[in-house]
Structures are given as structure tokens and as C-alpha cells.
Design goal:
By secondary structure, the chain is α+β, with helices and mostly antiparallel strands. It has 4 helices and 20 strands. It has a 6-stranded antiparallel beta barrel with strand order 2-9-12-11-10-13. Strands 6-5-3-8 form a 4-stranded antiparallel β-sheet, with no helix packed on it. Strands 19-1-20 form a 3-stranded mixed β-sheet, with no helix packed on it.
Length: 351
């Protein structure tokens, strides 16, 4: 019995000792100063504030057209006896495109020519007799009327015969041929189309906002996504001083200033028109400006110590932003990482 009591006392003493040690350890730990984790500085990249020119653009869109084109429709219907061109051929103005059967037209022309030749002799003789007083004015005028009618008939027959030979009205390439030998050419259906692609243009429409900002001679960038991400050069060649009939937009023509041959008529293009420009202003990368507490802010660096300042912005084209107040030329600013900067806390400049 006494041994059991002794064991219990020993166990109790051990437990009390352990509790005392744990309590003492906790007290000692609580008296130590707290460990402060070392703060990693924010990484930023920088840029120097400069004066320069900033501009904003507005997009227009349109199809690329040849500088000139012609849809050839025969002036008279008839059977096609010859087609002188094929798709893709280059031709000059006046070159033969196709011919029509001229049998009937030739017969009509020959008949009109004979009739005119006959009446012409009578008219000349009657004129001489009238001058000599041998015939009356009424007799002379009757023959004169016959002469004029015959002349008109001959001219009409000559024109109709000429319609059987169809030539190109412009220089260019054959872009379509819808007839063949033996087929019937109609006045209602285009037979051949010709396009002059030696120069290309874009017909676009300007809004009321842009009409005061665009002038002939202005240079523009033309983007054709199917060809390249790099813009092609263009020039505004004409601007209408009044809206197109029935619309509120002003027609404009832009020439495509590229002779590489890669641009084809019919391609879709986007034109960037310079709608606003300011020169000699403070401008910085747009990404350097951020919003905090509803205000535009920029981080200025003095060495590696940042200061968050409030600025006022002007023209912003998404790449560069005009600063009208808050910065001066020569200031060093943070371009990236500025959202995480704390005023006065050192940063790590990576570039």
C-alpha cells in the first residue's frame, strides 16, 4: 500500500514538473521581440518623361477598287462571231473585244448608202437650179428634206454596223467574259468587264466629326489583315464638300500608294485616319497611368524611392497619353509594377 502511494506521488511530481517547464517556456517565448519578416521590394520598369507629338486615329473601312473599270454591254443584240479576249488578258483602249454577226446590219447600211447617194445627186442639182431661179423654194426644200432624212438613215445604219465591232473603252485587264462564239449577246447582260488595276483606290465615307479633320493630301495607314500586320501607305485624294445624296456622310477617295503588286482589287481594308494631333506636349506610355481613389496617378522615382502623384491627362490613343498637369520633362516614372508601389517604400528597378 505504501509503495503504491509513493508511486502516485512520484507521477504527480513529474506531471507538475512538466507543466511548469512548458509554462516557463511559453513565458520566455512571449517575452522575446516579434520576428519581422523582411519585405521584398516591388519590381518596376521605368521611362523618362519627354515632350513629343501625339495623335489619335479613327478607323474607316472599305473595299479596294481599281482606279477605273468598265462593264461592256453591246449596243445591239446579235450572234457573237468572234471573241478576241480571254480572262486575265491585258488590253489597251480601242483593242477588239468581240464581234457580232453584221450580215443584216451591212445590208441595211448598203441600202442606206445607195439611197443617200441617189438623193445627194438630186439635192445638189436642185440646189444649183434654185440658185439660178429655175425651181421654186418649195421644190428645193422638198428635196432638201429627202436629203436630210437619207443622211440620217445612213448615219444610223453606219452606227448600227459599228456596234457589231466592240472595243475596250479603257486600258486594263479582262476580269470577266460571259459570251462565246455562236452565243447571243444581249443589251441587257454585260458581255465583258475590264479593270485598270495600275492604281488602286478605296471609296470611303467620312462622318460629320471627321469631315473637318481630313483634307486631300493627308497620309493614312491602310491595314489589310489578309496580307500583313504592317500597314500599307495611302493618301487622301478627294473629299466631298457635301454629304452624299440621302445620307449624312461625306464621300472620300483614298489612293493605295503601293506598287508591289500584292494588293488586289476586291480586298477588304481598314484605313486609320488621323483625327486629332498635338505637338510639343508632355506624353508618356498610357500604361504608366493608373487610377487610384478615382484619380489618375503616376509614380515618380527619386533614385529607387517612389512618390505617387496625381496627374491630369489629355489626348490618349491607347499607346501614349498626354499629361497636362503633374509631370515635367526629365522626370523618371514607373511604367510597370506601379500599381503595387507604396509611397516612400524603396522599389527594385529592373529596367
Amino acid at each position: 500500500m505504501q509503495k503504491q502511494k509513493l508511486k502516485k506521488k512520484i507521477v504527480l511530481i513529474v506531471v507538475i514538473a512538466v507543466v511548469a517547464v512548458i509554462g516557463a517556456y511559453r513565458v520566455i517565448e512571449s517575452l522575446k521581440p516579434p520576428v519581422i519578416a523582411e519585405k521584398t521590394p516591388v519590381n518596376v520598369t521605368t521611362a523618362v518623361v519627354e515632350t513629343g507629338t501625339i495623335y489619335a486615329t479613327s478607323p474607316l473601312s472599305g473595299r479596294i477598287d481599281p482606279i477605273d473599270s468598265a462593264t461592256v454591254v453591246p449596243m445591239a443584240a446579235g450572234e457573237v462571231t468572234r471573241v478576241a479576249v480571254s480572262l486575265g488578258d491585258y488590253i489597251k483602249k480601242g483593242d477588239l473585244l468581240f464581234t457580232l454577226d453584221k450580215t443584216q446590219m451591212a445590208a441595211t447600211y448598203n441600202s442606206a448608202k445607195l439611197a443617200f447617194g441617189s438623193i445627194k445627186g438630186d439635192y445638189e442639182r436642185m440646189g444649183q437650179l434654185y440658185k439660178e431661179g429655175a425651181v421654186s423654194l418649195q421644190q428645193y426644200q422638198a428635196v432638201e428634206t429627202q436629203y436630210n432624212v437619207a443622211k440620217q438613215n445612213l448615219n444610223a445604219a453606219a452606227d448600227a454596223l459599228g456596234y457589231c465591232t466592240v472595243t475596250s473603252p479603257i486600258d486594263g485587264y479582262i476580269t470577266s467574259v460571259s459570251i462565246s462564239e455562236g452565243s447571243l449577246a444581249s443589251q441587257a447582260v454585260p458581255a465583258v468587264t475590264v479593270a485598270d488595276v495600275s492604281k488602286l483606290k478605296i471609296n470611303a465615307n467620312l462622318s460629320e466629326y471627321l469631315i473637318t479633320k481630313v483634307n486631300p493630301g493627308d497620309k493614312v495607314d491602310i491595314f489589310i489583315k489578309t496580307l500583313s500586320e504592317t500597314p500599307f501607305p495611302g493618301t487622301v485624294t478627294a473629299v466631298s464638300p457635301a454629304p452624299a445624296l440621302g445620307t449624312l456622310t461625306y464621300p472620300a477617295t483614298i489612293s493605295v500608294d503601293d506598287d508591289s503588286g500584292v494588293i488586289k482589287a476586291g480586298m477588304f481594308a481598314e484605313i486609320q485616319i488621323i483625327s486629332d494631333m498635338k505637338a510639343g506636349v508632355i506624353c508618356i506610355p498610357s500604361d504608366a497611368v493608373f487610377i487610384r481613389s478615382g484619380e489618375s496617378k503616376v509614380v515618380i522615382l527619386n533614385g529607387n524611392i517612389p512618390s505617387v502623384v496625381t496627374v491630369e491627362t489629355g489626348l490618349d490613343n491607347g499607346v501614349m497619353a498626354e499629361i497636362t498637369r503633374g509631370l515635367k520633362a526629365g522626370d523618371i516614372i514607373a511604367v510597370t509594377g506601379q500599381h503595387y508601389v507604396v509611397d516612400g517604400e524603396a522599389v527594385n528597378i529592373t529596367k
